[in-house]
Amino acid sequence: MEIHKFWFQEEYRGKGLGSKLLAQAEIAAQEMGANKALLTTYSFQARTFYEERGYQMVGEIKDYPPGSSYYTMVKPFEAEEGCL
């Protein structure tokens, strides 16, 4: 699963909507056979949000854009019991 453009307007933030939508997308992706989720974000955006939901930073471009960093993050999905 690859996530692009996951964003909420300010008035909808902090209400749990992003967490719920992301969780549902992850469930749907796993049901379709995905074994991980991949996304990119910037240091001035949602890195902490994703880390709190199990995403790990696997790549960083420093000073892109100047004064910030660009991150690649991955969340492996656990295999169901009995699956290879």
Overview of this structure, please?
The chain is an alpha+beta fold. The chain has one domain (10-76): Gcn5-related N-acetyltransferase (GNAT) (Aminopeptidase). The chain has two helices and three strands; from the N terminus they run H-E-H-E-E. The chain has helices at residues 17-31, 47-51; strands spanning 36-42, 56-62, 69-76. A three-stranded antiparallel beta sheet has the order 1-3-2. A hairpin with a 6-residue loop joins strand 2 (56-62) and strand 3. The protein starts with 16 loop residues before the first helix and ends in an 8-residue tail after the last strand.
Task: Describe the structure using short key phrases.
single chain; Aminopeptidase; 3-stranded antiparallel β-sheet; 84 residues; alpha+beta
Describe this structure in a few short sentences.
The chain has 84 residues and is of the alpha+beta class. The protein is built from two helices and three strands; from the N terminus they run H-E-H-E-E. The two termini are 19 Å apart.
